[in-house]
Amino acid sequence: DLKGSVTLSNGVAMPYLGLGVYLSEEGKEVVNSVKWALEAGYRHIDTASIYKNETGVGKGIKESGVPREEVFLVSKVWNSDHGYDSTIQAFENSLKRLGTDYLDLYLIHWPVKGKYKETWRALEDLYKQKRIRAIGVSNFLQHHLEDLMDQAEIVPMVNQMECHPYLVQQDLIDFCRKNTIQYECWSPLMQGKIFELDVMKTLAQKYGKTIAQIVVRWDLQKGLVTIPKSTKKDRIIANANVFDFELSQDDVQLLNQLERSERFGPDPDNFDF
Ligand code: NAD
């Protein structure tokens, strides 16, 4: 189980640590990544229809021999599929590619203006029909969440956001916690740029761990779900080897204070859909 799950607001257990597969190539690359991760004890895989690798993710899970019900499988509805009917169709297509008949978590990938409420209604219905064990959003700022919850029947169980030492967004984390929305970090390694920071090199040396392990540990100690990505077997294994040390409170704070509102991905308010 790679040391622990959070219980979402609806009682479903979500493993804190998962494997991200954005830009993992469909075919051998993603199949192997998923297999190596499951072998190493990961039980949570994060994909999306736009990653164009759901077929390989499904194949990796099957070939791993780990029973489907032991894997927390996440996918997302893409921007061009927003709207009630097209979301239902996109969901069915994802299931088909993944070779499964349910998802553990389905997310609205981005808050497409004027459309995400209809999309959310589709997710609510799929959830009520027990096709999805939990539903959530991604890249929703506080105003998006407030706007959605204003009419939603079900409060999103998860908000998956860009989150790393240069983009902490503590106010949004606090808002989510208050509303029982689990915060999840995408690009926790700053898409590779974290490895250039001197402060990370210093911390890695201090704890005798890698930079990736320091930042994954930082997420976990703050109670955030995190999904570092790698396609290399040794890194997939190492990135999850974070349960034999603890960051001091001072060092947790030190990383929190690196915040400089710097994004490596799009701005949810200015995404050219
Ligand atoms: P990341 O921050 O996880 O960084 C991944 C990169 O870091 C890899 O390509 C690799 O080059 C490098 N790396 C990984 N482990 C390493 C190690 N031990 N040593 C040296 N280099 C290492 O980047 P990401 O893939 O953008 O984010 C993680 C996951 O988050 C994605 O795969 C995807 O599942 C999800 N995501 C979601 C959204 C969204 O809009 N919801 C957007 C981006 C990513």
Would you give an account of this structure?
39% of the residues lie in helices and 15% in strands. It is an alpha/beta fold and 273 residues long. The chain has a single domain (5-256), classed as TIM Barrel. The strands form two sheets. The chain has an eight-stranded parallel beta sheet. The site of nicotinamide-adenine-dinucleotide has 26 residues, from helix 9.
Strand order of the largest sheet: 3-4-5-6-7-8-9-10
Summed up, the domain count is 1
**Distance between the first and last residues' Cα:** 37 Å
Helix and strand composition category = alpha/beta
Tally of alpha and pi helices: 10
User: How are helices and strands ordered from N to C?
Assistant: EEEHEHEHEHEHEHEHHEHH
Q: Indicate the overall shape.
A: globular
Question: What oligomeric state best describes the polypeptide chains here?
Answer: single chain
β-strand number = 10
Domain NADP-dependent oxidoreductase: 28-258
Protein name: Aldo/keto reductase
Binding site for substrate: 109
Site (Lowers pKa of active site Tyr): 76
Summarize the SSE layout with pairings.
Elements: E1 5-7, E2 13-15, E3 19-20, H1 28-39, E4 44-46, H2 54-64, E5 72-77, H3 84-98, E6 103-108, H4 116-128, E7 132-138, H5 142-151, E8 158-162, H6 170-178, E9 182-186, H7 198-207, H8 211-221, E10 225-226, H9 233-239, H10 249-256
Parallel strand pairs: 3-4, 4-5, 5-6, 6-7, 7-8, 8-9, 9-10
Antiparallel strand pairs: 1-2
This protein binds nicotinamide-adenine-dinucleotide.
Nicotinamide-adenine-dinucleotide is lined by residues 20-22, 46, 109, 138-139, 160, 186-192, 195, 210, 212, 227-230, 235, 238-239, 265.
